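Fig. S4 source data, part A: sequence.
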Amino acid sequence: MAERRRRSKVVSVQRKRPINIDLFFFGAVAVYICVICYMAMNSQHIAGYEVSAGSLSVNHTYTGLALREEKVFSAGTSGYVSYYAREGERVSTSSLIYTIDEKGDLNELIQQNADNVDLTDENFSVIRSSIHGYMNEYDETAFSKVYDFQTSLEGSVMDLMNQNMLESLEEAGEDTMFSRVYAENIGILEYYTDGFEDVTVDSVTEEMLDPADYERQSLKKELIQADEQVYKLSLSEKWSLLVPLTEEEAEGFQQEERRFMEVEFTRDHTKAWADFSIKYVGALPCARLDFNNSMVRFADLRYVEVEFMIEDEEGLKIPNTAIVEKEFYLVPRKFLVENEDEKGFMKEIYNENGQAEAVFVSMILYYADEEYYYIDPKESDFSTGQVKIPMGTYLVEPESQERCQVGMSHTLQGVYNINKGYTQFRQIDILYQNEEFSLVEEGTSYGLMVYDRIVLNGEAVDEDEVIYR
């Protein structure tokens, strides 16, 4: 009995399971990883770029309109024409340009004996020179010029054959069936017109500067009428080239006060110096290049491609994707107040009694020109979160008590600096720019320095954004 009683007093107690620390730890880590992955997938990646010093490869190649002193000459009589002087050749009043055969006897004789006329070594040298020159200028994007060259080469061969035939006829005493026509002046001979012969630097229009719709007409014909144009002479070695520029390029050249320019001609890679000036054709700024030589090599071209021999400037190299434009308030310089280590302005407020008083507000200065300081319209007080100087705020000049209402604004080009872990706008002055990079001025008061880190995609952020790296 006693033993049963003792057993009946024993109470069964359920034990609590101990906390599984390992499971809790790994669960927390899993949740943390999920959160990080979610944030990574739903946030925009902000890449940085380190500013470096260097130069920028800038394309200074341009196409300009060539203007020369040109004169077109007409035939005195009608008849069949045979040409003897080559295009691009310098001729004088003793140079035979062409012959006129009124009855066509000479033309028929030339055709009958064409197979019997041999070209001299000098003739072949001229042909080889023409082919070599075309090969140097060949452009796959302008294949149609192949046919123009073919026609020109065939004409050159025919002219050489005519010249040899003429010499044979003179030796045989059969030179009375045609009349000779000699050059009326000294110059460079060409057999084309394009309507620009009477255009001068002062009469050029904007449309003339565009080579897209340019057309030229060959003057070479088998049969010509009296008073019909037959050849052209470029009379002077002095000629001009008008090269369209951008406003930025024209402004840069004017600031340099450049008076001369060395250029390299793309056609044959020769170089020449020219008098340089800026001329506006309508609203389009152009570089005017006045040459005293080299005309003979380009008398057959109306549009000439040149490269300005300009040394590349040194500066800070940044990607174009980092560049942004930001709007700022303009505040007259005389309103700036320096309070110990801080700079700012005296802002007019009204106290509890409705009395106006001025309090100092520290501000970040983003840029300064001769008249104004530039401040951020969205700059706010860290403690209150309110904008420091909203639009319409009055600022007070301490000495004169002059007031100025904030509201005038202007945009600046710049980038976002992230040296401190958050974005700060830095103003830039662009020196040169290509498709991918810009070269900006180094050492400006509110700009960048070498090794600064900036946001690669400036449009993806705003001022004072924290950047996690």
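Fig. S4 source data, part B ends here. The radius of gyration is 40 Å.
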